[in-house]
Amino acid sequence: MKIVSYNVNGIKARLPRLVEYLTEAQPDVVCLQELKSADEGFPIADIEAAGYGAIWHGQKSWNGVAILAREAQPAERQKGLAGEPEDEHSRYIEAEVNGVVIASIYLPNGNPQPGPKFDYKLRWIDRLAERARDLLAEEVPVVLAGDYNVIPNDDDTYSVRAMQDDALMQPESRAGYRRLLAQGWTDSLRTQFPRGGMWTFWDYQAGAWQRDAGFRIDHLLLSPRAADRFAGAGVDKEYRGREKASDHAPTWVRLR
């Protein structure tokens, strides 16, 4: 079972690339982030034509998450996170697919920091941790997949110096991510590449892709039951180099 996290950076703009990926790679589940589309604008007909069922949680112009399943319909379990009733950002959706609970996550960026956007990011991490703790208590295979907007370690970026003031790499951001892992989650990509150096994102600016100046912010965390079925993880890097591609590459884990 290949489960993918893919920040598409605008599903309408990247639809040809997404359909291309679904057709060529044929992953079993794809968690999308940053749809930048209201619910009614989600291109469900194109997704279904490619052989996938879908659920989604959209928002006009910003955010938005979805879960796609090949030749199946994801069974929706939850949209959004508890803890801030006034929070209207579409950043979390959760479903069950073939006995595995899967969440698509788009964690806040948090820039500029310090400031209210960074404070919101840290609160959101804490809210995610509360949901993650409840999911662990279910003792079922769970995958928390998404764009976490956190660079966990120094070797997860091309340049510590270039990113040192960014919200993605602040001590508070990293501490929130570590607290999540400490609950008992396995960072699948880190397990596959323990020495780091595996990027999932390359900015459009300053020739970042051409220079391979990237970093790792897309993560797929596994509950113990899912980690027992771990069969590999990786990044489908070539899709970042295609015409009008997202600035993220599809990042995946495979479960037996």
SSE topology sketch:
Layout: E1 2-7, H1 11-25, E2 29-33, H2 44-49, E3 52-57, E4 65-70, E5 75-79, E6 92-97, E7 100-106, H3 116-137, E8 142-147, H4 160-163, H5 171-182, E9 186-187, H6 188-192, E10 201-202, H7 208-211, E11 214-215, E12 218-222, H8 224-227, E13 230-235, E14 251-255
Parallel strand pairs: 1-2, 7-8
Antiparallel strand pairs: 1-14, 2-4, 3-4, 5-6, 6-7, 8-12, 9-12, 10-11, 13-14
Sum this structure up briefly.
The chain has 256 residues and is α+β, with helices and mostly antiparallel strands. It is built from 8 helices and 14 strands. α3 packs parallel to α5.
Question: Can you put this structure into words, describing what you see?
Answer:
It is a single chain. The chain is α+β, with helices and mostly antiparallel strands and 256 residues long. The protein has one domain: Endonuclease/exonuclease/phosphatase (Deoxyribonuclease I, Chain A, 4-Layer Sandwich). The protein has a six-stranded mixed sheet with strand order 3-4-2-1-14-13. Strands 5-6-7-8-12-9 form a six-stranded mixed sheet. The longest helix has 22 residues.
